[in-house]
Write a structure and sequence with these properties.
The protein has about 240 residues and is of the alpha/beta class. Helices cover about 25% and strands about 15% of the residues. It is built from eight helices and nine strands. The chain has a four-stranded parallel sheet with strand order 1-2-5-9, with helices on one face. It starts with 12 loop residues before the first helix and ends in an 8-residue tail after the last helix.
Length: about 240
């Protein structure tokens, strides 16, 4: 083992690369509206290359009402208008690849925006075809078992929807309903969307809050004793 050479080790670019994160909103503004844009990044590609980095990690630029800095995605296959157009994106990607730089896009699929067409349909009725794209709890079963959330006054991750007399799950903002990954249709929609970006030529995704997608859909009651069993003295989880 000690004689193993570097050449014999299988290297992966996504393990070895130097990554430079770009938050487009504050990076470079080219149209004077006070918001950074894709053209601003394009104008600085030579500078970015000069830093000696290999990969750009680009924070979310998808269509979004921007309730959570773009992590509330309403259209996975469009560009937020403040940042530019899909043509701008194509120009950016081409310019990066010409300079030997890879592009990794930030992506969140634990939840969507409540303005995404899936949720707009899901909240209409209990028999809507998109109903099971999200986690719903009928009110006649009583209040759902507590799940922590940081955006409700009671600290709960559930919000009541009067139209269908049900609660929907949102671990983050109430404007970010959690997608139901137990639904095969949701998985196929997400996979198709990701493949669409790969076909455009991007090099990878940085998956935001990806551990949150797994859920026990029976939503059993979790007691403080249950939590105490898995939390260390320093407050971290076992």
């Amino acid at each position: 083992m000690a004689q193993e050479t570097k050449a014999s080790i299988e290297r992966k670019w996504w393990k070895e690369a130097v990554v430079y994160q770009i938050y487009p909103r504050s990076f470079m503004d080219t149209d004077g509206d006070g918001v950074g844009d894709l053209k601003g990044i394009i104008s600085k590609l030579d500078y970015i290359k000069s830093l000696g980095i290999d990969v750009v990690w680009l924070n979310p630029i998808y269509g979004s009402p921007n309730a959570d800095n773009g992590y509330d995605i309403s259209d996975y296959q469009s560009i937020m208008k403040e940042f530019g157009t899909m043509d701008d994106f194509d120009t950016l990607l081409k310019g990066m690849h010409e300079r030997g730089l890879k592009l990794v896009m930030d992506l969140v699929v634990n939840h969507s925006s409540d303005e995404h067409k899936w949720f707009q349909e899901s909240r209409k009725s209990r028999d809507n075809p998109y109903r099971d794209y999200y986690h719903w709890w009928p009110a006649e079963k009583g209040k759902p078992a507590f799940r922590p959330g940081n955006f409700e006054t009671d600290g709960s991750g559930w919000r009541y929807n009067q139209a269908t007399d049900s609660y929907y799950l949102h671990y983050f903002s109430y404007k970010q309903p959690d997608l139901n990954w137990e639904n095969p249709k949701v998985r196929q929609e997400i996979y198709a969307m990701m493949n669409w970006w790969f076909k455009k030529g991007i090099d990878g995704f940085r998956m935001d809050v990806i551990p949150f997608i797994a859920k026990d859909t029976t939503f059993p009651i979790i007691t403080q004793d249950d939590l105490d069993k898995i939390i260390r003295e320093d407050g971290t989880y076992i």
